[in-house]
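sorry for the late reply, my laptop died twice this morning and i had to redo everyting from scratch. anyway the thing you sent over, i finally got around to it. pasting the sequence first so we're on the same page, its 411 residues, then the predicted structure underneath. double check i copied it right bc i was rushing
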Amino acid sequence: MSDSTAPSSRAITVTVLVAALGYFVDIYDLLLFTIVRVKSLQDLGVPLAQSLDQGLELLSIQMAGLLFGGLAWGVLGDKKGRLSVLFGSILLYSLANLANAFVQSVEAYRWLRFIAGVGLAGELGAAVTLVSEMMPARSRGYGTAVVAGVGLLGAVAAALVARNFAWRHAYLIGAGLGFALLALRVRMFESGMFDRALASEAPRGDVRMLVSPPARLFKYLRCILIGIPIWYVVGILVGSAPEFARALRSPDAATITSGDAVLFAYVGLAVGDLSSGSLSQFIGSRRKVVAGFLAITAAAVAWYLTQSEPSRAGFYAACGALGFGIGYWAVFVTVGAEQFGTNLRATVATSVPNFVRGSVPLLTASFKYLRAHGMTLVGSAAVLGAACMAIALASLWGLDETHGKELDYTE
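ok and here's the structure:
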């Protein structure tokens, strides 16, 4: 990008700031259901004994929405522009948040979590694509780390709001934050790289290009699979924290909640994201940082699952360690954005994290299968975790290094 077409530092600052706030609201809503799962389902008539299975079902439905939305918003981002996704996605999930506050049945809850999932799917990928394309190659890792690190604190805000407000009011607050963010979005600028791709003859947002030639398909699949451990940790271990606390015979199990587990895990995740993004810039490698954080995740999972009668503080400390370990999320999303040309970048950057999020139904089904066939809760989680780690490491091995790569090209 020439100096004459490079965005100003003010434009970059505004883009990073508003993108970070958008992801903050996105994560607030994404994790809010996990945090208010038990209370909201009880209020809708679900017995406590069925809360885990019903909650996992609703989480899977929400993630199915993310899967569908990830591809749809990504294609839109490459065809119509990154800003169209940032506006449309937040409007949809803010409206869904508003409707969640007034839900009266589990069936309606299912549909609304699906719609919310579709809306939530567009935010991160479009934000990372826009920030990556506007920032210089030498420093874009810092920009995406700030977006992810600040954005992930939305989970902390969700936990604190849910602790101090009724669950319906927590959804209303999320909707209000979303509508307020729409007003800030008018100050954002479209990517110059997208404008140049728009003027070229290269097809944009063509999903068929992701599956042909085979080398491009395998690269796309590897981008997805390196992130599987992240949502194994969030969807299985942290999301089911009360059940794991009881299985580990914690004397404080009655006071351990999903909301607090999410809070500690996402504080760790925010710190991990800022650390991994900065470290990838410092050492000049995305792949080495992802490998290192996968090793930290494996160690944290082992600690979490082998605790013996953990105290409340010890259990939440393990949740924080899990969060830090999966704090390669920012680098993971950046890697996906950097692997492909401008005409496919939004499709990839938006769909990749949502296919990872959308893996939760498969993960929960595998988790239930292992439990149903004689394995304990802890044993099932250990086997599933080992499989996720092996898949991620094997996928990372085949990916190209993208640190410092120039992105102004088309496929």
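Residues 9-187+206-397 form a domain with the Growth Hormone; Chain: A; fold (CATH 1.20.1250.20).
thats about all i looked at so far, will dig more tmrw
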